[in-house]
Amino acid sequence: MLHRVLNLVRKEVLQFARDRMLTTFLFMLPLLQLILLAQATGRGINSLQVAVLDLDHSAVSRALITELDNRRELEVRYFVQSEEDLRRLLDRGTVTVGVVFPRGLAGDLTNPAGNPQVQMVVDGSNSVAGSVALGAASTALGEYAQERLRERGLALQSPIDLRVTTRYNPTYNFRYFAIPAQVGFITYQITLAVASLGLARERELGTLEQLIVAPLSRWEILLGKAIPALIIGALNFLLMLGVAVGFFHVPLRGSFVLLFAVTLLFIAAEIGWGVLLSSVARTQQQAILFVFILAMVDITFSGYMVPVRNLPQALQMIAQVVPMYHYLIAIRAVMLKGAGLSAFWPHVLALAGLSLAVAVIAASSMRRRVG
């Protein structure tokens, strides 16, 4: 009995060894994902973008800006001229925190009757990044107020009064950040799985040859396989969105029509990937395995678990060709910020380009592999 079992094990191992692509995916891609996630999470949350509106234009305000920029968690990147510019950067997700130094700040710090105030506007849509940015900025300003002025021989009469405004998620509810991403990821998984089974099922059932000789062009076959996946993906999204808003009370502050249109564009891009995987896979099981492996990699590059900014620069460039990266930015912007298309149009344009490019590649791959 043991001998027969060992012979069967040997046969299975040989089958895996012959399929070099599958063997590579099984061992190398999970290893790559572990390395990338370990690097990204090990660095912590660093270099969160800060915008400054300096109305004081004094040596003190410039010193405070330097203090903010010296924090590992923060990077002062933008100097704006008005509060409207500051709000625009926050709406686009370009910055995590905005700091406003009012006129007369330097005088209020040393005036016994002064009331030095600094306004901070925090993007709370990412509750983790927002709380880290708030803590780092508060610490930097507080340390300057307590130490640096005394070192220069200035009499500090009162500490800086921080007036904090948290936009989009005032309670720092982590669900508001996580659940829209989960809606996107579930839609992604279902769409990719359905699309990847199309040609693989035909090949496994032996009906692919009949499909090839049918009076259908390759683009007609592609559309015939894509439309059911599009319908299933869209219905799945509507169901998940209803649960997120109705049951978990995640806000939908923006336009539903805009969100649904962007979702259809995202689904189209993932259908292209699914058809491409389906044309490569020999069986339905292999297609699903490819979907699982691709999903693990996409999680790393999409910002689903860790911010893309935490990845090395080369890997941040790879993230630009991952459709889910652009979609997660869009769905969070519409649901949490109520943003319009003007706030994230580059990501919509990227989704459109990726949808077209992947569709062309999938059609070309299908033409080569199915005759």
Would you kindly provide a written description of the structure presented here, covering whatever features stand out?
The structure is a single chain. This protein is α/β, with parallel strands linked by helices. The chain has two domains: 120 residues, abc type-2 transporter like fold (3-Layer(aba) Sandwich); 196 residues, no CATH class. Helices cover 69% and strands 9% of the residues. Strands 2-1-3-4-5 form a five-stranded mixed β-sheet, sandwiched between helices. Helix 7 packs parallel to helix 10 and helix 11 crosses helix 13. The chain is elongated. The model has no long low-confidence stretch (mean pLDDT 80).
Major β-sheet profile: 5 strands, mixed
The strand line-up of the biggest sheet is 2-1-3-4-5
What would the average pLDDT be, to the nearest integer? 80
One letter per element, helices H and strands E, the order comes to HHEHEHEHEHEHHHHHHHH
- N→C terminal distance: 45 Å
Runs in which pLDDT lies below 50 for 5 or more consecutive residues are none
Measured as a percent range, the helix fraction is 55-70%
Using the CA coordinates, give the radius of gyration: 26 Å
Shape: elongated
Percentage of residues in DSSP E strands: 5-15%
| Total number of strands | 5
Total DSSP helices: 14
Domain tally: 2
